[in-house]
Amino acid sequence: MPHHDYDTLETISNTSSPIPVHGVGRTSRISTEVVRNRKAFFSLREEWNSLTDSSPSRIYQTFEWQWTWWKHFGDTLELHIVLIRQGEQLIGIFPLFLETSCVHGRRVYRRLRMLGSDVTLNESSGKYVRYDPSDYLDIIASSEHTSEVVLNLLAHFYELRDSYDEIDFPNLPDDGIIMTKLIPELQNIGLKYDASRQDICPRLNLPGSVEEYLLKLSQNTRHRLRHARKTWLSPPHRPVQPVSTFEEVEQAFNILVSLHQKRWNRLGFPGLFYGSRAEEFLKEVAKIFFVRGNLWLKTARHDGNIVAVRMGFKFKDRMYDYLSGFDIDSTAAKLRPGLALILAMIEDAAHDDTRVVDFLRGEEQYKFDLTSDVAHVWRVVIRSPGYSGRTQLRFNRLYRLYDHLRNRWSYERELLEVQYHQHGIRSYLFHYLIFRADRIRQRVRQSRTLTP
User: Fold this and answer.
1) Which of 8, 146, 342, 414 could be 270's S-S partner, Cβ–Cβ 3.0 to 4.6 Å?
2) For the whole model, what pTM was predicted?
3) Is the pLDDT at 19 greater than 50, yes or no?
C-alpha cells in the first residue's frame, strides 16, 4: 500500500501491563506507535533530532538523512516507523518500511527493513539500479532507556508476526544497539536469525595531535603525507580551501560527481552516481548539512582549476570521510591532491577535538595505510515467529537467494556497461574478465593481510 494512503499516526499499543513474548514483556508506561505517512513522518523532525543528539547515534540516523533518503528512494515502499515513548517522552525510534514482493500479482514475500537500506529500483530507463548510500544503520534510543526500547521492539515484532516473513537489517555497526543489545535478547528468547559480516570499515582513532599520529605511520606513508602538506596546505598559496557559500557547495559537488565518475569508470567500476537518484539525493543532503554545520567539503586547485574535491560529514565526535574525486588526467595528479585533502580532514578533526575519523566501508589500500584499526558492518535477518514451518523457511531462503542474485546481476551488468563505454564492443568482455580476476586477487590479498 503506498505511503500516501495513510492520514494518521497509528497507536499499536499503550499498555500498563506487560505483554509476554516468550519471556519478554513491555515495560509499564511504555507506548509503541507506528508512523505510516509522510506528514506524520515530517512532524517528527524536532523530536527525532533531539533524540539523535542525545543518543549514541550516527549521522545516518539523523532526521535529515532518513527523510531525504525516503524522498528519493522510498516512493514505492510502505512506511513503518516505530516510536517508543515513556509517557510523553520519545525514547526510541526504529525507522522501518515494509517491502512486499509479488509474483503475477500475488503477494509472496514481505519483509521489514530499515530506512536507508540498500534498495534495487527499476528506473524509467528500464534498468535496475542498486542504491546503498548509508554506511551505518541502527535503532535510535536514549542511553538510559536502551533496554526498554529493545524489549518493546521485540514485543512489537511479535505482535505483528503474521504481517511479515522476515526482518532484514543491513549495515549494522559492531558496537550498535542491534548487535550489542537486540541480538543477545533474540538468543535469550529463542527467535531465529542469521547474521553475516558484510564489509570492513577502517577508522582512525585520533591521538593527542596530528604529529603524534604521523609518527605512528610507516615511514613511506608519513613522507607522502608531509610532502602533500607542504605542496597543498602550507603558506603562502594554500590551494586547498573550504567552501564558504551555498553556490560554492553546489559547484564543488557537481565537480566532485564528475571527477568521481571519471576516476572510478576508468578503474572499471560504475561509481556511486551510476543511477541518477544518488546524485539528486547526495546533492540535497550536502546542502542540508551545509546549513546545519555538518558538512565538511574542501577543494584543491591547480592553475586556477579544481583538481580534487573531498566531502565528509561531521557529527558529534566523529568525522565521516564519505566521498572524493580527483582529476586523474591533470598534471597535478602526481602531487597527490587527494592525499592532501585527507590530511586536511584529519587536521580539522584534530582541531575540533573529534575522536574518530571514519573511512567507512571499503577496502581501498590508502585506508589501511592511514590506520590499523578496523570495524565491520553486519547483516542480520530475523525470521518471523509466525512462520516457523520448514516449507516457509526454505521459501524465504530461496527468495533471499533470488534477491541476492538479482542484485548481483544488476551490479555485474553495470560493470559490463562501464567496460563497454571504456573499451568498445570489440574488447569490453576481455577487459571485464581481467577486471574481475584482479578484484578476486585483491580480496584474497586483503583477507590474508587482515587475518591475525
Assistant:
1) 414
2) 0.87
3) no
